[in-house]
Design a protein that fits this description.
single chain, alpha/beta, Rossmann fold, Dihydrodipicolinate Reductase, domain 2, 2 domains, 9-stranded mixed sheet, 5-stranded parallel sheet, 9 helices, 14 strands, globular
Length: 321
């Protein structure tokens, strides 16, 4: 098994600690956190080994799981790569695109694998939808969250919307052509509500809305394509697929038939896939172990994490235009 350590023991870091300790794909070595008092409490409560400095932890592991604030990602990931340690790094990959591109080159030079923690790729509803999404031409995504001070040090685009940016980029096989966006700060010093319209070179348009000051939580995306509509509810873990096909000459009494202005008749039917329950965080961590052991490409590569960050930064820049 691969020996793994965790950097960062905050809210999400504690979840990673527990899952890696339970995982059958990893041998959990220990963790490091800059807050020594907090780390010692975790060590005492859960029995995880606390390392007093990051460098000592790196010497003991094959893989490091970086679950720190984004501002520390670049420095710590760089240290890990230079030490020859594979790295899993939470989203966004780094604070800037330039930093992310440097990590990509370093990883190539040191023959190190990396994966970015875009966990929605592993959401069972999205996984079930992947095979149903084919050349979408219009996408609408809403990601709304009740206010939580955690994460408000960055714009809502990097906090929430980047999940949908990555998911959309993974299914739209085209380059970004143009971005229009607006953002509003309500409580934080950075935008709490944002809307972006992304146009792709193949004609696809994606309309994304993110808010962290909503009265209810919502994480839903809709994909419209030729003769089909796919709805993915990331929060409720439900996928709905509505398809159209040429109507039969003699449809049964319960068939749903539409007729357009030209007289063409289409039958509407549902093709909802089965949702397989999983732990998305555990899956993303364990598939990374499999990619290392099998020498295959991780599901969310450093390059893909960088592209999601690049688009997010373009959206933020568009706020001022």
């Amino acid at each position: 098994m691969l020996k793994v350590g965790v950097l960062g023991a905050g809210h999400l870091g504690k979840i990673h600690l527990r899952l890696l300790n339970e995982s059958k794909k990893y041998s959990f070595v220990g963790f490091y956190d800059t807050d020594k008092d907090h780390a010692l409490k975790i060590e005492k409560e859960f029995g995880y080994t606390y390392y007093e400095n990051y460098e000592d932890l790196l010497k003991e592991v094959d893989v490091i799981d970086i679950v720190t604030p984004t501002t520390y990602h670049f420095k710590t990931a760089k240290q890990a790569i230079k030490a020859g340690v594979h790295l899993f790094v939470e989203k966004p990959i780094t604070s800037t695109v330039e930093q992310a591109e440097e990590l990509i080159e370093l990883a190539k030079n040191h023959n190190v694998k990396g994966q970015v923690g875009h966990v929605e790729r592993f959401n069972p509803a999205f996984r079930a939808a992947i095979s149903k999404i084919d050349k979408p031409m219009f996408i609408e995504a809403h990601r709304l969250a009740e206010f939580n001070p955690r994460g408000t040090d960055v714009p809502v685009v990097l906090d929430l919307m980047i999940h949908d940016i990555d998911a959309i980029l993974s299914v739209v096989n085209s380059k970004v052509k143009n971005i229009n966006a607006s953002g509003v700060s309500v409580i934080s010093e950075t935008p709490d509500i944002a809307n972006a319209r992304i146009q792709f070179e193949n004609g696809c348009v994606a309309n994304l809305t993110a808010s962290r000051i909503s009265l209810k939580n919502m994480r839903k995306s809709r994909f419209f394509q030729r003769d089909a509509y796919v709805s993915v509810d990331f929060l409720e873990k439900v996928t709905e697929v509505v398809k159209m096909k040429d109507a039969p000459e003699n449809p049964d009494d319960f068939a749903m038939i539409l007729q357009n202005a030209e007289g063409v008749k289409k039958q509407i039917y549902f093709d909802n896939p089965e949702i397989e329950t999983n732990n998305a965080i555990l899956d993303e961590l364990e598939t990374f172990a499999e990619a290392i052991e099998n020498k295959t490409t991780p599901i969310v590569t450093l390059e893909q994490g960088t592209e999601a960050l690049r688009v997010a930064m373009q959206i933020i820049k568009a706020f001022d235009n």
